[in-house]
Amino acid sequence: MGRRRCSIGIEHTSFQIDMHIHGLHHVAIIASDYQRSRDFYHRILGLPIVAENWREERQSWKLDLALPGGAQIELFSFPSPPPRPTRPEACGLRHLALACADAAAARSYLQASGVACEALRVDEYTGAHFFFCADPDGLPIEFYQSA
Questions:
Q1: Is the peptide bond before 88 cis (omega within 30 degrees of 0)?
Q2: Are the C-beta atoms of residues 93 and 47 closer than 8 Å to each other?
Q3: Residue 68 and residue 94: Cα distance in Å, rounded?
Q4: Would you say 131 and 143 are in contact if contact means Cβ atoms under 8 Å apart?
Q5: pLDDT digits (tens, 9 = 90+) for 40-81
Q6: How far apart are CA 133 and CA 131, in angstroms?
């Protein structure tokens, strides 16, 4: 048979798969300092805690934080995780982008909370305002003003 594309753009030679992907479920982040990262995501960003569990067999915390729309951030601790490569940019997750109603207000709040933020920018393709900061381990976080 001929080639067909499934709904997410993967080519198959003899059949079409409909993956029915309907959203993002979670993003997993490993923290070097669990308490510091927990404070950042929960207290500073205001993400509600869904569950927090100590996993004895792994000597690891797993914290589930709710994002609007149903997705979650899973925050993990592990003994001695390697540092995140940042420069030059490495393959893999480049940054986490969070939608916000007012990028300038979010930036002001974060700066008042002691979080260093880059300058407010304008997306050249959409005209939307956005900026970047970083979590305690240097993971870039973009705040993107949604319509």
A1: yes
A2: no
A3: 21
A4: yes
A5: 999 999 999 999 999 999 999 999 999 999 999 999 999 988
A6: 7
